[in-house]
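Milestone M4 deliverable, item 7.
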Amino acid sequence: MTVTSHVLDASTGRPAAGVPVRLDRRDGDGGWTTLADGATGADGRLHGWVPDGAVRPGVHRLAFGTGPWFAARDQPTFYPEVVVVFEVADAAEHHHVPLLLSPFAYSTYRGS
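Output delivered:
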């Protein structure tokens, strides 16, 4: 079971390299446990960053550090962090969660 992501800067049409990303899993008590931390590469992608066996069925979230990324580019943003919460139902499936990002909007979808 894997979780991957990529971030595209929709305002430029280019990959967003260097965006900090954290993957968490919801605990039984409603808290969160961090499974992996990383940053997008030159191609805007994250892959191979989650340890084998870390993702199990349940609720997970990806937290994208968009504020620091925009600040490094002297670009104001309305969204200092984008958090995407999703549910893993089948541990055998691959889960790809892309982020399309601009300073004042974002969207996401389940990729393949």
